[in-house]
Amino acid sequence: MSELVADGGLERLRRGQSLSAIAGVVGLVLLVGGAFGNPAQFFRSYLPAYIFVFGLALGSLALLMLQHMTGGAWGMMIRRILEAASRTLPLVAVMFLPLLFGLRHLYIWAVPEIVASDAVLQEKAAYLNTGFFVARAAFFFAIWLAFAYVLNRWSAEQDLEAPAGDQPKFRVLSGPGLVIYGLSVTFASVDWVMSLDPHWFSTIFGMLFMVGQVLSALAFAIAMLAVCAPDEPFHGRLKAAHFHDLGKLMFAIVMLWAYLGFSQFLIVWAGNLPEEIPWFLARLNGGWQWIALVIVVGHFALPFLLLLSSDLKRNVRALALVAAAIVVMRFIDTYWLIVPGFAHGEDPAAFYLHWMDVAALVGLGGLWLAAFFRLLQGRGRLPVNDPYFKDALAHGGHH
Fold it and tell me: Could you give the C-alpha distances from 358 to 26, 42, 351, 363, in angstroms and in order?
């Protein structure tokens, strides 16, 4: 294992860690400075940046469990990237804490005066209240941290001693883990994002949120794999066929995300109900319609057309560029989902981008990336003791 850790790629990771940490500190200093002058904007800038970073970490855990369940060769090459991203969850949990101080700035159900004059909020008060909200968040994080800890610990043990045969414990944990992930993320998406407009609801929202997280994580992992590809231990082992498989999976998830997003729009449009329409009206007026168009083109149409090409999926640089663009689009989509909700059903707010929105993304994103790069350095970057590792390498040579 020692030769896998002591490789030239470490220098690249350390440089990434340093640059990310500097960007993160600068972004957070600016953000905290802005909080003193405009606390409401601080929380409204913090939430979309946080949800985006949270999606990268938790989506990686979901993808890791999916790979353990399927045993696909596609996941063997990105497993260490997914594990490192999932080990950032303690940091992500700490990042959540500032939001607890800004609930009144974010959610109208947290303002007693508004609840007192709103019959719908009074009906939902048993669920949407500050104490229960905090308790649910603590419960969700406890579950996610436990799954990430156990899977990573078993993986570390596997690195130290090669198992004699198959290790079904990974699958035994990951199966229920994926079900629990789906349920917990659905509730978290309702709590943290959908309840920005507590008069609105969507039965597809949780699934859309979940698929978005997995797409964020996969696109990020592909981009990182491309960065690591020239270095040991990937050099010579990582083949175009591995990228081709990852590209096909990314194509499928882009399609699924678009299907769910369009289904939600179609159901609301066809139903034409007054309690459902305002959510879309707020996001299709006042300049937000152009962001919606950017999402349709950049998050679906272009990736769909580009990823149809088998040659592009086998071209490391081209696929990495598409993956990086999807990561960017994931933030734009997150911003579009969240920020119009701060109007709280009044006249839809015109599109705006506050400088604190950028500071929050750079601050939280930089800090998270620095932690990710640091964690990725801690272990060999390929699971060479996995019973299926040789099969995964052989698969790369069959195309």
Answer: 11, 11, 15, 8
